[in-house]
Every structure is written in C-alpha cells, then in structure tokens.
Design brief:
Layout lengths: L1 H5 L5 H29 L5 H7 L8 H14 L11 E2 H23 L7 E11 L17 E9 L2 E10 L1
Parallel strand pairs: 1-4
Antiparallel strand pairs: 2-3, 3-4
Helix pairs in contact: 2-4
Length: 167
C-alpha cells in the first residue's frame, strides 16, 4: 500500500481505492459468513429432509432451493427464471411438491424446531403474462407468455422462481 502511495506514477488516489476495495471485500465476506451460518443452522434441516424424501427425486425442488440458498449467501438474484420449461400438468405437480416442502417445515415446528430458516412456501397458478400486459421481460427484447411462480422466504428474505410454461 505504501509503495503504491509513494509511487509517483500511482499516488494516493489509487492507494485509497485499494484500501476501500479491501474493506468492502472484508465486509462482504463477513456478511456472507453470517448468512451461511444462519442457513446452516436451519432447525428444520429442510435440504437434508428433501434429499432423503423419495417424492422429491427427479423434481427441481432441491435444485431451486439450492439456487436460492446460494443467492441468499452471496446476496444474489432473488427473482430468477428456471432454465427448464414445464408443461401445465408438470408445473402443477411441481406446485404440489413445493407445498410438500412447506409441510416438512411445518412438521419440524410441530416436533419442536425453534425457527425454520425456510418459511412461507407458496406458488401461483400459471398465468398468461402476455394477456395480462406483462409479456416483456424487464427492459429486454425477450418476451414470455405463460408463467408460474414458486416463492419462499429464506431467513426472512423472499425469493421467487419464475417457471415458464409451454402450452
């Protein structure tokens, strides 16, 4: 740091920027460690329960939750779109499994778990976004028609997975 500050080609401004960047990285790492510890302390042990429960095999429930967990820890995207497109019947099956994940959390609370990390699992029926005037994807040229949503709170933060439905 002193070398950068004393170097006539660099100077104080770059040295200050390096210090600032280092402090931001340190704070970001500490915040991520706190969020990871909260996730690891899930009293319902939901991720392990889902992995062990055969009804979830082959579904995207575990993948979606793992993506949300990663986003929670690194403060990433909270409203992603699943890369797999579903048909209407398969989406309804996914919604049923999503509700079953809430059931695991409810059972854990009934058995004495203090405060599950995952709460408020809910979903919306497929909606024709184009007909509802919501056909554009943000400020992009991409468009969508039918879409559903799977929502859940992780440590109090709401995450929403958009599911594109092919009809």
């Amino acid at each position: 740091m002193v070398r950068v500050a004393c170097d006539p080609r660099e100077g104080l401004d770059p040295a200050r920027q390096i210090l600032s960047d280092d402090k931001i990285q340190e704070l970001r790492g500490a915040a991520q460690a706190v969020r990871q510890a909260r996730l690891d302390a899930d009293s319902a042990d939901l991720l392990n329960q889902i992995q062990a429960d055969g009804q979830f095999n082959g579904s995207h429930v575990e993948d979606i939750l793992n993506q949300f967990c990663h986003s929670y820890v690194v403060a990433g995207e909270r409203n992603p779109t699943l890369s797999v497109e579903y048909n209407g019947a398969d989406y309804e099956t996914l919604r049923t499994l999503w509700a079953a994940a809430q059931g695991i959390c409810d059972d854990a609370v009934a058995a004495g778990a203090a405060a599950p990390f995952f709460t408020n699992f809910h979903s919306s029926p497929a909606q024709n976004k184009q007909a509802a005037g919501k056909g554009n994807v943000g400020a992009t040229l991409d468009s969508r028609t039918w879409q559903g949503n799977l929502l859940v709170n992780l440590g109090g933060a709401t995450f929403n997975m958009h599911i594109n439905i092919k009809n």
